[in-house]
């Protein structure tokens, strides 16, 4: 077991290191072309898929206890958050940025183009929806937190989702990641995987964004005081 863990840790470290070096080189080389965000997105998605695939292989080999698997999930999530350099790594996240106006529609589509079940289909889709809802809620409510602390909050949310739902669907809640790790598995059709791993996370992300946007607007309207003009009458 120790040898398997050591090999996996070496692979994870190598993938993250090479991806980070590649990102830095691409940012410098494409600085005046406007293509650097898409290159960073592509490399970051590759990093995410490779690391997740390695963790999946290690877990499926049965060589590590669940506690260690969750610890590695948390650590790699923190590493992704610290090294992605603004990349989303998730088509649902790109759509959320487009909704909020941080990305144009065309830019979101191009970023999505860079990304490459043990339950009934409705139940599995609901699980992915709830996981995406929970993680997106944490992401939304930690926007103002300093990045070095925020990545730990997001990583904790991801690890909790994996712990709660990993035995049902794998708790992927990322269409690009699911296409890399789940779609090659036998037992379900392509459309069934799309229903669970694409539609579920998309609905979960959008429901979180729309719900809390509406709640924030409603609470801000209720809490804002009425400013009445002060009228003074002076008689000469």
UniProtKB/TrEMBL annotation:
InterPro entries: AQP11/12_channel (IPR051883), Aquaporin-like (IPR023271), MIP (IPR000425). Signal peptide: none annotated. GO terms for molecular function: channel activity. Keywords: Membrane, Transmembrane, Transmembrane helix. The keyword Hydrolase does not apply. The chain crosses the membrane at residues 195-212. Its main location: membrane. GO terms for cellular component: cytoplasm; membrane. Coiled coil: none annotated. It is found in: Membrane. Pfam families: MIP. The keyword Metal-binding does not apply. It comes from the Eukaryota. It is a multi-pass membrane protein. This is Aquaporin. It comes from Gambusia affinis.
